[in-house]
Amino acid sequence: MNWRLAALRNGFQDATAYRLEFLFEVLGSAFVPAAIQWVLWYAMFKIGGAHEIAGMNYSDMVQYTLVSLLFTQIRGGDHDFELQEMIRTGQLSNYLLRPVSVVEFVYIRGMAPKLLIAGVCLTLGMSVGLFFGMSPVRIMGAMLMALIGNVLHYQIGAALSTTAFLWEEAYSFLMVKNMLVSLLSGELIPLNLFPKNMQWMWKITPFYLYVFGPTQYALGHWTHTYFLEQLAWSCVWLAAGWAFIKFTWSLGMGRYLSHGG
Amino acid sequence: MLGFDPFQRPIEFRRKIALVMGQKAQLWWDLPAVDAFDLLRAIYDIPTPIYKERLHTLATLLDVTKHLNTQIRRLSLGERMKMELIGALIHWPNVIFLDEPTIGLDILAAHKLREFLKEFNRLEKATIILTSHNMEDIEKLCSRVLIMRTGEIIYDGTANGLTEKGECRLRVRLMQSPTVDELAHVTGLAPSAIFLQNKGPEAAAGDDDEDDHKPIFFTLKYDNIVAILQKIMTTYTIINMGIEEPSLENVIQRLFQ
Predict the structure, then answer these.
(1) Which region, left, alpha or beta, applies to residue B4 given φ > 0 means left and ψ of -120 to 50 means alpha?
(2) Domain chopping of chain A, boundaries
(3) b/e map B214-243, b = 16+ CB within 10 Å
(4) Which end of chain B has less Cβ packing within 10 Å, N or C?
(5) What is the DSSP letter of B246?
């Protein structure tokens, strides 16, 4: 069996070693952003009496919340934290001596449970989507974009984790990145709610391709052409991310020092 | 090494080496060891029949066959270290780096591990580079010893070569408590050949009621024992004495003093 398949299998076994814990983690990470959004929409539309915000009414907002849940689950995991911890503790030495790329290996192992969740979300989205008249092609396209977003998220994290070669507190750096992602990916609020003069903030990062982009396409708010254009952009980001990783890791490896056992 | 530049880390080079660090586990805590070995089999592209044979050989030699399907977190430290070794050796490396492999292990587990390494080395002719602060590991396993001090090699040779031929350790307890310099002056030996021992493993050779008098160790040739004792007795009163083979630990201690 190819080592990538074996790593996927191993990562899946590791993530689901405690099945109940895995289930609670998935449900918990879906429930929290959904609950925050629902409370927000209820306060604005039902208590505050608003009819439309940024062209979206209460029903649009709830739809966004529910559909975005499918993609929030696929958004990147914490493998970048694993990388920075390996660099910081010297555990990286174990991986550097294996005949595989450490960045790729850590990603594939960590990606395994996300792939399962993506499969479940896709099936769920397509089945429920059919009932609500959503196009299966759009849901599949949106899932593809979310998966590319997952790779992008890891690429950025893997490059940032190299700060651990220089700085022992690189963990905080990754935490800040994750907070920005929560805000700018559309996981907490639809990004078109941003004030007009602040829209550039999410447009200059690739984070909107994680949740907001897939949700907009699945809901039919993006045309096929615009979606393909965004997909092309995500490929540009992927190439840039790959170059960024190569550059930061070659810099970091030159400074790597492990004090052994 | 092996015709490669280690810093370049070419794939072929990585397939031929292995590293085990006593303090840094490479197996996954929540998974049984056999799952990790299965992944390593795929990483090193080992054909299944060969993998099964190697796993059987290694698990039998290390006596952990019955633990292969147990989660790593549920194993004892010794069993975990044995699994780490299997994980490192499953691809039959040519060069194995072992960094403190017996750290934290009980006497039996450490003994078993040493026996295994000896046997593996005998069977496979693999080069084992062992870094250890445990002198027993070195005395029992290493045919060549390199001692480093602040990044410089200060000794390169056999373990036996560290203790010169015909050299021994004279242990004496005195009524007085002279300093190393005073003893050097009286005996004419270099201060580096004299070692004052506080209570500890070395002191165990003496009686309990004599613990107040520190044992003093002189490293010298057998031929000089009588002459040195005579010199000591001109100035000090000897309570008891003994002659020992110098241990590797003491020799290294002396090298660093």
Answers:
(1) beta
(2) 3-253
(3) bbbbbbbeeebeeebeebbeeebeeeebee
(4) C
(5) P
Determine, for residues A260 and B71 on separate chains, whether the beta-carbon distance falls below 8 Å: no
Residue of B nearest to A254 (CA): B7
> The complex's ipTM?
0.83
Please enumerate in sequence order all residues whose Cβ is within 8 A of that of B210, keeping only pairs 6 or more positions apart, or say none: B173, B239, B240
Is B24's CB within 8 Å of A5's CB? no
Cα-trace Rg, chain B: 24
Q: Tell me how many residue pairs between chain A and chain B have CB atoms under 8 A apart.
A: 70
Place of tokens 């893997």: A158
Is A130 an interface residue toward B (CB < 8 Å)?
Answer: no
The CATH code for residues B162-256 is 3.30.70.1150
Which chain A residues have a beta carbon less than 8 Å from that of B100? 260-261
Domain boundaries, chain B: 6-142, 162-256
Q: Which of A94, A95, A109 to mutate to test the interface with B (most CBs of B within 10 A)?
A: A94
Nearest to B168 by CA among B91, B98, B245: B245
Say if residue B37's pLDDT is above 80: yes
Q: Do A93 and B24 touch (CB under 8 A)?
A: yes
Instruction: Select B6-142's CATH number: 3.30.70.2740, 3.10.180.10, 3.40.50.300, 3.30.420.40.
Output: 3.40.50.300
In 3D space, the residue among A13, A111, A82, A72 whose CA is nearest the CA of residue A190 turns out to be A72
**Residue range A198-213: mean pLDDT, rounded:** 92
Three-state DSSP at A101 gives coil
Task: Supply the pLDDT for residue A90.
Answer: 85
Taking only the tens place, the pLDDT of each residue in A89-124 is 888 888 888 999 999 999 999 888 888 888 888 888
B20: confidence class by pLDDT, cuts 50, 70, 90: confident
The secondary structure of B155-203, three-state, reads EEECHHHHCCCCEEEEEEEECCCCCHHHHHHHHCCCHHHEEECCCCCHH
Is residue B41 within 8 angstroms of chain A, CB to CB? yes
CB contact under 8 A, A96 and B31: no
Confidence of residue A79 (pLDDT cuts 50, 70, 90): confident
User: What tokens appear for A227 in the block?
Assistant: 């979606």
Nearest chain B CA: its distance from A176 CA (Å):
28
Q: Does A94 touch chain B (CB under 8 A)?
A: yes
Token pair belonging to A208? 């909107």
Q: In chain A, which residues have their Cβ closer than 8 Å to the Cβ of B23?
A: 261
